[in-house]
Amino acid sequence: MREYLLVLFCTAAVTYLLTGPVRKFAIAAGAMPPLRARDVHREPTPRLGGIAMFGGLCAGILVASQLDNLSKVFSQGTDIRALLSGAGIMWLLGVLDDKWGVDALVKLGGQMIAAGVMVWQGVTVITLPVPGVGAVAVSPTQGMVISVVMVVVMVNAVNFIDGLDGLAGGMVCIAAMAFFLYSYRLWYGYTITDAAPAVLFSVLLIGMCLGFLAHNLHPARIFMGDSGSMMLGLMLAVAAISITGRVDPDLITSTTGSQTATVHALVPIYIPLLLPLTVIALPLADLLLAVVRRTWAGQSPFAADKRHLHHRLLQVGHSHSRAVLIMYFWAALIAFGTVAFSVTNTGRTVILTLTGLCLVGLVVLLTPRFRPRAPRAVQAFVPPRYRRRGPARGAAPATGDDTVVAAPTSAPMAELSAKDKELLGELPKNSTAGGRGHGGGRNR
Which of 86, 191, 265, 353 is found 20 to 30 A from 19 (Cα to Cα)? Predict the structure, then answer.
């Protein structure tokens, strides 16, 4: 675990330190597009944050290659090399899109090429473990199709939710944490060494997201752009593909001692493909809804709009930060709730806990204008929007709705000019400054 923490820290530190220079480079290079109608931010913000994240990825892999235990991952397979080649292609495609813009179909073709390069290097689905049947082998063509489709779906799902400050990075970080718990338990809990690459990929993802979120939280100083969002989606897909078909249920049965315990240990994440789908259930749901919505309206599925889930939260009345935190909450609830079923034997406790958390989440979701006020003793330690507003010294008392009534000023009114006095004298005596007298108003 200490080696993983070292890799995580190095990845996060390099990503954090590179983001500042990358921001200056993005501004100088003009990778700061003007505001669009569907944008939420109020001023142009530079992109190309994926450059810093790719640098953090390379630094984390370099550190892992020099550690005793993690260096075995590099010698036992080609997963690391395949990840770097696929992430490099995806990153380059994203950089071109952030700077000059790339057509949607060209971008889709590039995503498929990146996935195909990884499949050619061995990162592909070999078998699918089916409950009650066992490991079902798939043909090379079927494995290639499943792998490419999974990469494309993951990449676009993460790209679709990159609409609010810190939303995509935070949700991918939550997904990577949940997947880390799952793969780490398979490796060290059941001594399945084939799960080692997925553990390393999850740690690298967590470090990249944490290092970038320090600059990307609201108000964001830089956006990750497509160069970052597509790379994060690809890495999450690779972590799932690298472990799919390599987990032999018989190995877990030899540890648990019974087939029933084995099924419980792997259900509801018996099929490793299921977990990455659950940890980003919200992005996938948003992706499917967007495709259906745009296709039904006769538009292209890649046509941008302002009707994503996070946009709807803003329309309901939630603030920017509150909408992001709500998405974080539901993503963590689904992801870690799924993992909890395979960890504990008390499924009833897990269900009751998740039900209670769902009720809390629904209450928060349906009360967008509720803003708690912190006690006066801790007001110095909370953001200004959570402080209690009171009358200032010498000011007029506040009203019931926390709005301060301005005190009348005692300063004399400035002298009117001669022209203003002449115009004032021409007004009828029964009229007011608004042009409305007792006899009725006049249109101005």
Answer: 86
Cα–Cα distances in Å, from 144 out to 78, 111, 233, 432?
16, 14, 18, 80
* Tokens (6 digits) for 156: 């676009």
Question: How large is the C-alpha radius of gyration of the chain?
Answer: 28
Nearest C-alpha neighbor of 361 from the set 386, 382, 334: 334
SS3 label, residue 102:
coil
Q: What is the pLDDT of residues 304-333, one digit of tens each?
A: 666 666 667 766 766 778 888 888 888 888
pLDDT digits (tens, 9 = 90+) for 216-272: 988 888 999 999 999 999 998 888 888 765 555 555 555 555 555 555 555 434 444
Distance CA 212, CA 209 (A): 5
* Phi and psi at residue 437, to the nearest 5°: -105, -175
Which position has the token pair 């099924």? 263
Terminal-to-terminal C-alpha distance of the chain:
76
> What is the C-alpha separation between 183 and 176, in angstroms, rounded?
10
Cα–Cα distance for residue pair 70/199, rounded to 1 Å? 10
Q: Which residues contact 143 (CB under 8 A, 6 or more apart)?
A: 119, 124, 125, 126, 245
**Ramachandran region, residue 308 (left: φ > 0; alpha: ψ -120 to 50; beta: rest):** beta
User: In the structure encoding, which two tokens stand for residue 317, read together?
Assistant: 């009345």
Q: For residue 261, with 0-12 CB atoms within 10 Å meaning exposed, 13-18 middle and 19 or more buried, which class applies?
A: middle
User: For 350-389, what is each residue's pLDDT tens digit?
Assistant: 777 877 888 887 777 767 765 656 677 776 766 565 565 5
Query: Whose CA is closest to 302, among 123, 75, 109?
Result: 109
pLDDT at 267: 46
State the DSSP string of 235-286: HHHHHHHHHTTT--HHHHHHHHSSHHHHHHHHSSS-STTHHHHHHTHHHHHH
Q: What are phi and psi of 378, to 5 degrees?
A: -115, 15
Nearest to 102, CA basis, from 9, 226, 284? 226
Q: What is the DSSP letter of 372?
A: -
DSSP state of 371: -
Residue 334 near residue 277, CB atoms below 8 Å = no
Give the whole-angstrom CA distance, residue 435 versus residue 103: 57
**What DSSP string runs through 185-223?**
IIIIIH--GGGHHHHHHHHHHHHHHHHHHHHHSSSPS--
Phi/psi for 428 (5° steps) reads -60, 150
| 225, 47 Cβ separation under 8 angstroms | yes
